[in-house]
Amino acid sequence: RKRTVVLISGRGSNMTALIEAASDPDYPAEIVGVISDKADAHGLRVAAARGIPTQTIARSDHASKADHDKAIDAALAGFKADIVALAGYMRLLTTSFVEKWSGRMINIHPALLPAFKGLDTHKRALEAGIKVHGCTVHFVTPEMDDGPIIAQAAVPVLVGDDEATLAARVLKAEHPLYVLALKLLAENKVTMAGGKVCFATGNGLVENP
Ligand code: GAR
């Protein structure tokens, strides 16, 4: 099973979904650690309660962004991580860190990329008046929310929605989507090559079908 470390900053509901999926021995990834940049992240308590080793690596304990990411990289080495899953990790990672983990690091974003990169996706979706919204799991590349797309799930935007109701509907779609995407990666059914995503078929890997 692929040794997977989840990076969080807060609630950790996507992390919890991955931990739950990986509690099935047939799931191809195991969650071997959780790292947070925030000592008070709720997800740290959830992970610890489930017996998953956790570490806090705070930006304020490091002189530079590069040093912070180096400390995270060292922790990943300590966990012998094969895969890094960003799950509500609210910090941009340095290019050298991203390049080192290229093809082995994925992120979940609460919008149908390439629409609504960045923050406040649900607020902006409502303002734009779109009728279909959703979430995306993608490979992490140095540009924010820009990497090749592995999987997406769509949800309707309903009359009367506010940010909270829309966020809740999207979040419900995020959890199974992330479980599916990590499974595909851990089984080598999806890979990133030359900045593009490739999916396994009966005939080998095909580019972005
Ligand atoms: C999720 O909606 C995730 O997609 C989003 O933060 C939330 C974290 O919730 N991620 C981003 O906005 C990344 N920029 P969780 O901690 O309960 O998984």
TrEMBL record:
Catalytic machinery residues: H109
Coiled coil: none
SUPFAM superfamilies: Formyltransferase
Enzyme kind, highest EC tier: transferase
Keyword Transmembrane included in the entry's annotation: no
Pfam families on file: Formyl_trans_N
Annotated N(1)-(5-phospho-beta-D-ribosyl)glycinamide binding sites: G12, S13, N14
Pathway where this protein functions: Purine metabolism; IMP biosynthesis via de novo pathway; N(2)-formyl-N(1)-(5-phospho-D-ribosyl)glycinamide from N(1)-(5-phospho-D-ribosyl)glycinamide (10-formyl THF route): step 1/1
Enzymatic reactions: N(1)-(5-phospho-beta-D-ribosyl)glycinamide + (6R)-10-formyltetrahydrofolate = N(2)-formyl-N(1)-(5-phospho-beta-D-ribosyl)glycinamide + (6S)-5,6,7,8-tetrahydrofolate + H(+)
Domain of life the protein comes from: Bacteria
Marked site positions, Raises pKa of active site His: D145
Domain Formyl transferase N-terminal residue range list: 2-182
Residues the record lists as binding (6R)-10-formyltetrahydrofolate: K65, M90, R91, L92, L93, N107
Family annotation (CDD domains): FMT_core_GART
HAMAP family given in the database record: PurN (MF_01930)
Protein's job: Catalyzes the transfer of a formyl group from 10-formyltetrahydrofolate to 5-phospho-ribosyl-glycinamide (GAR), producing 5-phospho-ribosyl-N-formylglycinamide (FGAR) and tetrahydrofolate.
Protein name: Phosphoribosylglycinamide formyltransferase
Source organism of this protein record: Aquamicrobium terrae
